[in-house]
Structures are given as C-alpha cells and as structure tokens.
Amino acid sequence: MRGDLTVLLTGNDAVTYKRCLQNLYDSVAEKQILSRGEVQSLANTTCANIFRKGMELSKDDPEFQSFCDTEIKELRKALERKPVSWEIINRACGIDHAALPMKVGKMTFVSATADELKNIPDDSIDKPITKECFSGNVLGRVHVEAVDVDAARMNATRIHQQTIDCLNFFASIAGVVGQAYLLGDKEKGHGLRVSIGPNEQISHQSFLYGPLQLVPLNRVADQPGFERISKMLESDQPSKLEDRILRATQWAGRAFVDSRREESFLLMAIALESLLLAKQGNENITYKVAMRCAHLIGKTDLEARRRLVGDMKDLYSRRSTIVHSGKTEVSDAEIGSLRHYLSAALFTILNREPFCSMKEENELEAWFEDRLLEVPVFNQ
Predict the structure, then answer these.
(1) What's 83's DSSP letter?
(2) How far is residue 317's CA from residue 287's CA, in Å, rounded to a whole number?
(3) Is 1.10.3470 the CATH number for 237-373?
(4) DSSP 3-state of 101
(5) Taking the complete model, does pTM exceed 0.90, yes or no?
C-alpha cells in the first residue's frame, strides 16, 4: 500500500483479484444493466475501505469483522440496484432523410434538423462539437434501462447494431446499393489503382468505395416480413423462436453487405444454420441443414428436393474448405445460390403459414420432425 493509501497488487495477488472481479461481473452480466467498469469500481471501493480499516484494527477484532460484513452487504446492495431509464442518441449513417422520422423496433430514426435538436433536453446540444456531429445528419434514438451510463451506452449500441443489421438485410433484398452503419464502421471515398505493364506501360483506374447509396427506410419497410421483424426488435423479451429468427436476419444482413466474398459466404452459412438449427451438436450439420432447407423451401416433388439437398451439400463442402483449409475462392454461382436459399428460407419463415403464426421454437422443431417422419404413399 502506497503512502496515499492506494493498494497495489502484484503477482498471484493481482491474478487472484482479477479472477474475483471477473466472477463478480459474470454474476451480474446476464442482466446487462451494469458495465464491467462499474462493477470494478464498486469492488475497488469496497476493498479499499476494508484495507484502510485493516490498518486501524486487527483482523481478529470483532469490530473489523462487523465492518467487513457491512461493506460486503453494501457491495451486494449496489450490485442489485434497480436500473433507471436512459435515452441514448447516436449518428445513424447511410440512411436517407426521406420518410423520417420512422420507428424500427426500439430505435427511432430522425433527421437532426434545428427543431429536432431543440427536443434534446440537454444544454450540451449548444456545444460546437455536438452541433458539428449531429446537425444535418440522421440520428438514432433509443431508450434503455441500465444502472450506469456505460452499461446504457453498451445496450444502446447493441440494439442499434442489431437494428442496422436487420435493415441491411431488407435493404439488400429491396435492391438498395448501399447500407446503414454505425459511425466509424465504414469509410467511403475515391480510390486509385495504378497498373504497370510491359515496357512500363502505366494505366490508372479510379473507383468509389464504401456505401454508394443511402438506404430509404420507407422502401425497406415495404418489404414482406419487415413489420414482423420490427415487432420482434421492439420486444423486451423475445421468445426463443423470435430470437432465433432475429439472429438469422442479423447474420444475413451482415453477410449481404460484406465486400469480402469468403466472409460473406461464411456469414450466410451461419445465418442459415441459426435459422434452421435449434442448437449445435455433434450431429451431421450439413445433412440436417440440407434436409431442413429442402423441406422448408423445396418444391413438393421428391426430385426437386433431392437437387436442393445436393446443392446444399456442395455449398457446405465449400464452407468447410474455407474454414478448414484456408482456401478462399468462392464463385459467383456459389454466392448467388447460398444467398437465394437463405433469403427464401427467411422469407418463408417470416411470411408463410404455418410459420408466421408460430410463437414458440418447439412448434418449428415439431414441423421439421414431422416432415422427416412423413412416408410417401405410391399408387399401386
């Protein structure tokens, strides 16, 4: 302990204390209302108070024991505090101002006009840096519940990212050549390539990079299934089935805007697995995904489903090659096929009966099991 009563831990003591902090955070992390920094600050304060008291009293002194008990109770009480409401406002990049304001799930997207900025109850809006960042841009506003501001920001970012990913899925389906993104995630501008050939022949190629078009939310909102996804995003406690559909849509949204072909392909495979499989096990994933996809979107005749199963097995063979051997060559046909099957599967689940009426995950699992147990009847 230093002269200013700061406690410095080294070696095994430091390792043990870090492990205790991690265990403490893990005990409250599931609720997502306390940040790691807040938990560490509370624990540090408790330990510092106990250390300082220990300099005054013997550790065997009943008064010291009582003091420690009180400090631990106060720590527990602090960790069990009820969350309060926060509104978090962020830039929402890549979104067109047309048709705003618009609510998608928990997020409300607005144009940062002078009148809109007046609605922000904070004198910080008059600061030049705030006006410079917000004015004239699209903002995403969301209310979250949290104990400390860092946890509130973390929850808001998670909600914002999930909403953006789902928007990008529907925007891509709508044919929008652009994407929504969080500030700092993407870069756009003009690039230049210089090619030097035989005899020092030089050619220049200029190109644009980054999102090329703003996402019109009104056009995205017209896509089949969007309203259902928006309601799922708005739910504080989505069912297991809703969470499964949201995860698949989110992975699909990321896949459809990823410019790296092999990563886009892998993300699409993850999205399809998230949608078709309730849980990952040791069973043959390729076979299970192929069979479920064939029953979900395949035609009624057996030969058509067999061809679809064959396609899926080929696509998953490519997936395994990328993952296990590091080879990254993916053809346009493979990208297009997997994208088609993923989009068809998601739209079937979102829009067609009996799936759009399903509330629980076991309903979907039961449907898949019934398809596998069906025995075709042939005319004699």
Answers:
(1) P
(2) 11
(3) no
(4) coil
(5) no
